[in-house]
Amino acid sequence: MPNPRARRARRPGPRRYTRRDRLVLGALLGLPILLDLALIWGPTFASVGLSFTTWDGIGDIRWAGLRNYDHLFTGYPQFWPAVRHNLLWLAFLGLLAAPFGLLLAVLIDRGVRFSRFYQSTLYMPVVLSLAVVGFIAQLILSRDQGALNAVLGGENPTDWLGNPGLNIWMVLLAACWRHTGYVMILYLAGLKSVDPGLKEAAALDGASERQTFFRVVLPTLRPVNVIVGVITVIESLRAFDIVYAVNKGRNGLELLSVLVTDNIIGEASRIGFGSALAVVLLLVSLGFIVTYLVQELRGERRQ
Question: pLDDT tens digits, residue range 122-140?
Answer without folding.
Answer: 888 888 888 888 888 888 8
